[in-house]
Design brief:
This is Phosphatidylinositol 4-kinase beta. By secondary structure, this protein is an alpha+beta fold. The protein has three domains: 172 residues, Serine Threonine Protein Phosphatase 5, Tetratricopeptide repeat, CATH 1.25.40; 191 residues, Phosphatidylinositol 3-kinase Catalytic Subunit, Chain A, domain 4, CATH 3.30.1010; 255 residues, Phosphatidylinositol 3-/4-kinase, catalytic domain (Phosphatidylinositol 3-kinase Catalytic Subunit, Chain A, Domain 5, Orthogonal Bundle). The protein has 26 helices and eleven strands. The strands form three sheets. Strands 3, 4, 5, 6, 7 and 8 form a six-stranded antiparallel beta sheet that branches. It has a three-stranded antiparallel beta sheet with strand order 9-10-11. A hairpin with a 4-residue loop joins strand 7 and strand 8. It starts with 30 loop residues before the first helix and ends with a helix.
Amino acid sequence: MKSENDVEYTIKQPDLKDASVPNAENAGKSTDEMITAPDDDIEKEDDGEIEVGKENSIKPTHDRQSWTIRLLSSDSFDASMAVEYLNSIQDKPSLTFLGKRLFDLPEKDLDFYLPQLMYLYVTKVDAASVSHAYIEERHKNDAQFTVLCIWLLNCFTRNVPNKYENHALMLKSLLSKTNSPGSSIESMNILSLDRLEETNWTVGSTYGKYNGNFYHSEVQSQSTALNATLDSYEKPRYGPISSQILTNQQNFIGRLVFIGVKLTQQHLFSSKQEKTIALQSELNMLNSMLPTAVWIPFDFENTIFNICVDESAVLNSKDKVPYVFFAEVVRSSPHYNNVKTPASLDQKMKRSQSESILLKNKSYHDSTDPSIAVFAESWAEKKSRIRGSSRYENHQKWDLIPVIVKTGDDLSQEAFAQQLLFTFKDLWQEEGVPLYLRPYKIVCIGSDAGLIEPVLDTLSLHQIKRHLTNLFRMNGNPATPLLKHHFENVFGPVNSETYVNAQKNFIQSTAAYSLVSYYLQLKDRHNGNILLDMEGHLIHIDYGFLLSSSPRNLGFETAPFKLTTEIIDVMGGIDSDMFLYFKSLLLRGLMAARKHHRRIVSLAEIMSSGSKMQCFRAGAETVRALEARFHVSSTDEQLQQLVDTLVEGSRDSYTTRFYDSFQYYTNGIH
């Protein structure tokens, strides 16, 4: 990759003698107002490159510019600061210097903010002009970066005013070019939904044509040859990317989307069994012509060599047909899950306890429902079973990746919410606050499709309460089962070690998601959208309603977060030490988030500008209200009072109970 010295920039240093003397017209204006560049100063060339035109005749003061550049040159400069200042800096010399500094940041750190980088490119010409060189350089050697940029551009051109569309098309045209002379991949601009027989793919292997049922001895005898074949699947990690790799990847993902669209159009009202048969038929066709060097775009460190067709299943949905599939991949390095180390006695005991919990959790799954049964098996068991029947079970780089494909919905808001959760998780870890969040990865494939990472080894509170209700009725018990009954059934007696550990995990995760619910104003918090994992952690999913949006925009759920009586009972009651621990975590989480509030607010500021996402329907007021909830000017004592207020406002809230009852009687959600 080029260093910043290899990239040509023109930085015109301000001269004090050129500075305009304030006159009557400029009197009272702020410096930012005086240095704002008109749109005419940005010139675009026909070849797709963007250059900064002549600077405004009104220059920023020398001191102000020097302080900005000092900040951008400091050791504290990071990716979060880069995107925030890319959005806020007005003077062009400082902005141009910021563009050069992008090359100094770790690529992985800046990739986390790729949605903001692309959104700023689409909506702010000044930001585009200084980030263009960085994007172009990354595009030359990074296929994952390229396809993510194109998918984000496809998404954002639908979510911002039409006046920005040509600007985005220019960048997509650039990204559709490769370093190979005379090659281009115009098909990268749109999803290819053609049938596989009509797609010009480079077929990498006939692996999908085998049924995988080989005798173990035969696999052992062929291990050397098979490993050599598998190694050939790995993509080149460095150097110029080829147009064929990008075309194959785009067509592969496009085919996954097409399958979801086809199932929705032709099998929406079919039985679950018919949907599953249709899904597996489509995946079989895809598997039989699987091209080389395609990957699951949650990261670039994997290459698919087989889709486990028989493991796939459609998921429950009223008006769409989302589905889940599992892909065998080869990693770029041995995956940590595949490293086998001798187990100590303590580890063996914990494994035995975990297996006991798994066995109990299995009974909660409805084996007659394919969308539920597919997740009944523990992830460790599923990986072990699939690997045992794989031709490449002994390859140290083997791994299995689960993927949910969802079509017909814009997942950009959901992806934005998960980005905020990852940020909250990082800042609490940095401050040493033991709060637990489980964000999951989402990749938007345009404005109406995407890939979602499943949250495995979990049960929804709805599944738990429905199962316990059925058990109670079978035993002639008319009482309403509580969440505490599940904890005692799965984790043992109240004072046992396993119960106490699960209770602690429950409190740390409940406190974390309570704060997230308060900050982001999460709605639609029924028991189908709240999960419990095998260690007792509470996990929230489905972020379709947050900030300024709510179901039907009624804003009925008025409590800061969900804190029902049965949640408090698991903690030990309001007078218990563990409930005090819960409140102390809320306070520590508030103080840590207040310290780093700009990392959250700046993301909302960037994504709210001209956005059509429902969470920003209130416009600039949404961001102001979000920042106010961090209580930056409050003292620690005032934050303690805030914790008491939030808990009292949430504890056994009438609107929370009413919404749960509404979901039960209308949708059957316990």
